[in-house]
Amino acid sequence: MITDALIAPFTEFEFMRRALAAVIALSLGGAPIGVFLMLRRMSLVGDAMAHAILPGAAIGFLLSGLNLFAMTSGGLIAGFTVAILAGVVSRTTGLKEDASLATFYLASLALGVTIVSIKGTNIDLLHVLFGNILAMDDQTLLVVAFNATITLVVLALIYRPLVIESVDPLFLRTVSRAGAPAHLAFLALVVVNLVNGFQALGTLLAVGLMILPAGIARFWSRDITGMICIAVISAIVSGYAGLVLSFQTKVPSGPAIILVATVLYVGSVLFGKFGGLVRQLFPARHLEA
Amino acid sequence: MATALPVQAQERLKVVASFSILGDFVKNVGGDRVDVTTLVGPNGDVHVYTPTPADAKKIADARLVIINGLGLEGWLPRLIQASGGKAPIITATRGITPLRLGSDADPHAWQSVASAKVYVANIRDALAAADPADAEMFLANARRYQAELDALEAAVRAAVEKIPPARRKVISTHDAFGYFAAAYGVEFIAPEGVSTETEPSARDVGAIISQIKSAKIPAVFLENISDPRLVSRIAAETGAKVGGTLFSDALTDEKGVCPTYIEMVRHNIKALTSALGN
Questions:
Q1: Same structural domain for residues B262 and B152?
Q2: Least CB–CB distance from B206: residue in A120, A124, A247
Q3: Which of A122, A134, A251 is facing B205, going by the closest CB pair?
Q4: For residues A93 and A127, which has the higher predicted lDDT (pLDDT)?
């Protein structure tokens, strides 16, 4: 009975298998990014960047119509530009990262809306970029897997400076110059994973699959490696359980996945090993044994 | 006779229609005595439209506003209030018994040609009331256009007749063809529901795939306003043929395949017969 509910949807339908593959790829790439975003207090950057890609998508649309490739590349370029400009400004001036990013994303959004209305169309361009997790064709699936691979490789390359910078930026500045390039490469990864998430998950909720697992991981581990592993696992579990939930009830898939992640998050807030509410109220006794 | 009068310096009647298909009806009835603008243009999705200040200005300037009603233009009442326009609002579906989808009315009444004739009659009366001087001309135009619609209705029925009854089933992207289905006996199944705003669940998609396989549904169709990827995926998984694009809620622009309502219906019926015929 239970195996029927949990496994049968995937053996019976190819679209469910493809959706699961896409969710796993998204989790592998997005969850580690989310952990670093959280450690750097940039959890809301994902949402800001989501809006920053609009003018790029709009220019892609103006140049070649409703062409997914052109609009995606445009969105990536716009996202990179905003991320890099914001990063440069916050590093060279006293303005904090969140403030400079907010400035650039709002400017970018305004530009995007203006470009769209010059064309005089009412098509929601961000929606055109959105795919649907249930409609994974070969091309989208390959792109999602490719991006996840790139993300993991680049993360491995910049892991050391990124970790040190996340915990002690001043120390890194004194021993190495790798901080700035690593930071910019990281921002680029954020953009890639966001666009990836939109195409696969089909809503702005894509940000959720990056950030919520990181929040969950925070309550179960104290070191970064542990956090990344737990984040990836909880993202995959949310993805799988969300798809099953969407199959067994009538909840749309994207929201279902994020809702499952939210339940995991609430559970972690209550019962988490590190800083969970229950642990704080009833601390384990020391030196027993 | 209106035509016998000396050349009028009088301005043409400014009419705003909420979307392209209504605009086409108004153009046919109003002829050159009417200046019609549409809020949601060709290939636009009227379910999720976001109005602009230019739209509010159009409504404020209009002498007559024609809407579909039945919940299609959810964004319109606030726009009309905000625009401060004094023009009467005419619901073109008045007199049509709406089909029900759950608790809501299905707004896509124009997909049945018989209902389209009701639209035309409502528009004719509204135009005549707003501009009595040209009433006779509107009457004549409406009579001529309704005759064309009668011919269209006959053509659609003849075309459906040619499809074997067992094969009169198709999948489309959103529930826009309820009236067409009811009028001509072709069954439509859609993953998106009646508005394009809703997102399908995995359960819906799974159910449709099982249904296509068990009922041997021969073809799936795309729509000009919806995301084609989901339907393509369904086609790939079931071996059903992608029968082309159906036009549901919006006409194309002048250069497209169906710039008018009549051409739209002819295009749809041709796509259906070639995909469902043997």
A1: no
A2: A247
A3: A134
A4: A93
Same domain for B136 and B8 = yes
* Residue range B216-236, pLDDT digits in tens: 888 888 766 566 777 788 888
Together in a domain, B148 and B121: yes
CB distance B57 to B79 below 8 Å: no
- Answer whether residue A80 shows pLDDT above 60: yes
Whether B253 and chain A come into contact, CB under 8 Å, resolves to no
Q: The CATH number of the domain where B166 resides is what?
A: 3.40.50.1980
Q: What pLDDT, on a 0 to 100 scale, did the predictor assign at position A236?
A: 95
ipTM of the shown complex: 0.73
Is residue B187 located within the same domain as residue B213?
yes
Q: Does pLDDT of A289 surpass 60?
A: no
Q: What pLDDT, in 10s, does the model give residues A27-51?
A: 999 999 999 999 888 878 877 887 7
Q: Token digits for A279? A: 């642990």
DSSP, residue by residue, chain B: -GGGSPPP-PPPEEEEEEEHHHHHHHHHHHGGGEEEEEEE-TT--GGG----HHHHHHHHH-SEEEE--TTS-TTHHHHHHHHT--SPEEETTTT----EETTEEP--GGGSHHHHHHHHHHHHHHHHHH-GGGHHHHHHHHHHHHHHHHHHHHHHHHHHHHS-GGG-EEE-SSS--HHHHHHH--EEE-SS-SSTTS--BHHHHHHHHHHHHHHT--EEEEETTS-HHHHHHHHHHH--EEEEEE--S----TTSS-SSHHHHHHHHHHHHHHHH--
Domain ends where: B124, B139, B157? B157
Domain end (from B157, B190, B222): B157
Cβ pair B109, B115 in contact under 8 A: yes
Pair (B179, B60) in one structural domain: no
User: Residues B225, B205: contact at Cβ < 8 Å?
Assistant: no
| Residue B4 confidence (pLDDT) | 46
Which of the four pLDDT bands, split at 50, 70 and 90, describes residue B7?
A: very low
Please say whether the beta carbons of B188 and B172 come within 8 A.
Answer: yes
User: How many structural domains comprise chain B?
Assistant: 2
Confidence class of residue A233 from pLDDT cuts 50, 70 and 90? very high
Chain B nearest CA to A201, separation (Å): 11
**A243-268 pLDDT tens trace:** 999 898 878 888 899 999 999 999 99
pLDDT at B84 over 90: no
What are the tokens at B150? 């009668």
Domain that holds residue B130: 4-157
> Hey, are the CB atoms on A117 and B45 less than 8 Å from each other?
no
pTM of the model: 0.73
CB within 8 Å: A252 and B48: no
B125 and B236 inside one domain: no
B137 and B170 assigned to the same domain = no
Residue type for position B27: K
Kindly state whether residues B196 and B271 are assigned to the same domain: yes
Shortest Cα distance, chain B CAs vs residue A132, angstroms? 7
Q: What contacts A91, CB < 8 A, 6 or more positions away?
A: A180, A183
Contact B200 A252 (CB under 8 A): yes
